[in-house]
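Design job #97: recover the sequence.
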């Protein structure tokens, strides 16, 4: 087993910390628990959000309710509203009943406390999910502390990037399928052949119809072409270059500096690009530092003996606890390596091990910082744990009570058949023109008795024109938003006012409308299953919560709730 003090596998260079912030690795157990939590919340917890379960003095603003000594605060309510309104401006919640939200928070509090009484807070899956959340949030803070906050972008940085990457190149490109073809073309060019004529005759690139001409900025060029062009003077032609399975010859016609007067138009994009580059460089630098500090060991002999490409040979390692790699006491076993391989889509085993080492040195450093003791993160962790507990309760207590069979689903379908009808359909004619004046003129002609089909054929610029404007049967989702609003208010035979669609103007005539047809059970079985389970889940939860409420001591401070409601409505 060899000690590693630096990156040992050649060619591996990625912004690891940035990647680790957004992805926490293929931990299937945690992923499954989180996925289940999300699905179940979508089914049941519409508008609900677990409160912080506090005793003693309130730390979240005004107290709105007390449940068996546990306080529900203004902070809990506002957080719940943010989640329910997808983090929109809370003023959009003005028409909602905040009392209803408070009651939902009371229900959540009762369920979460029941889950604790059942010992679900010690369930291994719950603990693993919470630990994963703590780790994820800790890595985010480590990135902010060691990478983002250490990067600054100056005006000089922005101008330099702009001048380099927004320089414009007028190029000629010839793309062919073999090296021999490309060399033959290069030979003809050396004898004085016209580049554009050869491009039009031989190139397989889309630019062939323009004689291979294309205008690109440096930032939009493929790297290989950019490198080739960098060494050319106007009028010169590159050597043959290979990009993937194609071969290219490139000619530089001209280059123009990025104009100063256009800088402000792209300033924000430039700043984002420069910051991203600097953060990537700082992240890689910091990762190197962490690796140098860490005690890293890889068993090269064991790693060499594991054949990930041979399913039969690799199968013997599936349950192996043999240690392939170790970072400061944390180990990667052969069995874990095999499990990870499927998520890396054929990447070499050395790459997988190296990625694990990178992730592990970051994880361990993030946890060593104890960010979870900071009051704000501690509060977020408690909220997250409460939600996971609620989900564990649903999973353990409620779902096993839901009985599902084909007959139950068929009975539900028969009782609720209209809920599984297809969408309403509309058969429409349309006339689309380029200007508002043209559209108004057409509408006047229709009002004076002109034939819609004839006008569509003569004046419309859309694809339905040759059919007399007949666009066929459509559902609302297939229509642009302005057309949806127009068609819903029409009776068959009526014509809409003029409305705008993108850069054009349109009028439509409703020919007919048809109610959605109820689909066969087989076609909607999945939808029936989801609807039935959702309804049963709500029924069973409501029954359980009613029992808990009957045994609980609950006090709601209506004046405090109304005060917040008034503030939000303002």
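Job complete. Output follows.
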């Amino acid at each position: 087993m060899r000690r590693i003090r630096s990156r040992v596998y050649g060619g591996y260079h990625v912004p690891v910390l940035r990647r680790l912030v957004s992805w926490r690795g293929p931990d299937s157990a945690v992923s499954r628990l989180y996925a289940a939590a999300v699905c179940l919340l979508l089914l049941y917890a519409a508008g609900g959000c677990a409160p912080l379960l506090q005793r003693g003095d309130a730390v979240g603003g005004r107290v709105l309710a007390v449940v068996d000594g546990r306080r529900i605060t203004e902070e809990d309510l506002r957080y719940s509203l943010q989640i329910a309104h997808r983090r929109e401006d809370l003023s959009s919640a003005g028409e909602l009943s905040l009392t209803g939200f408070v009651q939902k928070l009371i229900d959540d509090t009762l369920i979460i406390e029941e889950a604790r009484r059942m010992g679900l807070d010690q369930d291994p899956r719950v603990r693993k999910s919470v630990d994963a959340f703590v780790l994820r949030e800790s890595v985010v803070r480590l990135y902010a502390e060691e990478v983002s906050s250490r990067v600054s972008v100056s005006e000089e940085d922005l101008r330099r990037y702009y001048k380099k990457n927004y320089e414009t190149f007028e190029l000629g490109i010839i793309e062919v399928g073999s090296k021999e073809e490309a060399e033959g073309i290069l030979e003809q060019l050396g004898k004085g052949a016209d580049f554009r004529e050869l491009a039009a005759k031989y190139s397989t690139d889309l630019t062939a119809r323009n004689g291979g001409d294309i205008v690109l900025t440096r930032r939009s060029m493929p790297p290989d072409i950019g490198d080739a062009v960098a060494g050319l003077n106007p009028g010169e032609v590159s050597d043959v270059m290979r990009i993937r399975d194609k071969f290219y010859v490139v000619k530089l016609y001209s280059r123009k500096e990025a104009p100063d007067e256009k800088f402000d138009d792209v300033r924000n994009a430039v700043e984002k690009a420069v910051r991203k580059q600097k953060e990537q460089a700082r992240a890689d630098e910091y990762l190197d530092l962490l690796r140098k500090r860490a005690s890293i060991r890889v068993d090269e002999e064991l790693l060499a003996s594991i054949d990930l490409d041979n399913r039969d040979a690799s199968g013997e390692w599936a349950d192996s606890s043999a240690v392939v790699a170790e970072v400061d006491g944390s180990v990667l076993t052969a069995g874990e390596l095999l499990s990870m391989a499927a998520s890396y889509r054929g990447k070499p085993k050395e790459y997988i091990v190296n990625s694990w080492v990178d992730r592990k040195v970051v994880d361990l450093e993030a946890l060593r910082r104890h960010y979870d003791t900071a009051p704000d993160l501690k509060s977020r962790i408690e909220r997250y744990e409460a939600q996971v507990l609620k989900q564990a309760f649903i999973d353990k207590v409620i779902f096993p009570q839901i009985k599902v069979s084909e007959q139950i689903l068929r009975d539900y379908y028969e009782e609720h058949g209209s809920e599984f009808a297809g969408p309403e359909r509309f058969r429409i004619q349309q006339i689309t023109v380029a200007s508002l004046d043209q559209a108004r003129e057409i509408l006047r002609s229709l009002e004076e008795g002109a034939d819609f089909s004839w006008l569509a054929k003569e004046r419309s610029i859309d694809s339905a024109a040759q059919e007399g404007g007949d666009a066929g049967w459509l559902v609302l989702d297939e229509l642009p938003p302005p057309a949806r609003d127009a068609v819903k208010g029409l009776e068959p035979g009526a014509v809409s006012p003029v409305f705008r669609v993108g850069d054009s103007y349109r009028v439509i005539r409703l020919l007919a409308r048809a109610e959605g047809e109820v689909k066969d059970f087989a076609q909607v079985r999945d939808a029936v299953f989801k609807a039935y389970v959702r309804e049963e889940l709500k029924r069973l939860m409501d029954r359980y919560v009613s029992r808990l409420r009957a045994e609980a001591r609950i006090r709601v401070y209506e004046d405090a709730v109304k005060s917040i409601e008034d503030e939000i409505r303002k």
